[in-house]
Structures are given as C-alpha cells and as structure tokens.
Amino acid sequence: MTKTLTFALMHFAIAFSVAYLMTGSVVVGGAVALVEPAINTVAFFFHEKIWSRIQSRDEEQGGLTA
User: Fold this and answer.
1) Mean pLDDT of the chain
2) Cα 53 to Cα 13: distance, rounded to the nearest angstrom
3) Are 11 and 32 in contact (CB under 8 A)?
C-alpha cells in the first residue's frame, strides 16, 4: 500500500508541476493535479479489464501475451 500511495503522490506532483509550468496558474495546476489522475485511474481500470480479456483469449488459443 505504501508503494501505491507514494506513486499517487508522485503522479499528483508531476501533474501539478507540468500544468503550473505550462500555465503559470496554481489554480489550473491544482485542478489538473486532481482531475487528470482521477480520470487516468478510471481509464486504467478499463484498460486492465480489456487486457485481461485479451490474455484469456490468447491463453485459450495457446498463444502468449507479454
């Protein structure tokens, strides 16, 4: 769990830093730092579900997916 939390903190910090450097706005940086990781988390959930189906299909067909 510690690894997950430190990764989340790093992700928020990077998102804030990039948005702040591009806009010069703390508000925009903060908004991006909250919204982007949340959307990315949802997208990752669906990515994992799709990837799991692909792996299951490949295993049934005798293939290997890295």
Assistant:
1) 89
2) 33
3) no
pLDDT for 64 beyond 80: no
Contacts of 20 (CB under 8 A, 6+ apart): 26, 28, 29
CA–centroid distance for 57 within its chain: 25
Confirm if 14 and 22 have CB atoms less than 8 A apart: no
Q: What is the pLDDT of residue 63?
A: 63
d(CA 55, CA 63): 9
The span from the CA of 32 to the CA of 23, in Å, is 11
Secondary structure (H, E, C), the chain: CHHHHHHHHHHHHHHHHHHHHHHCCHHHHHHHHHHHHHHHHHHHHHHHHHHHHHHHHHHHCCCCCC
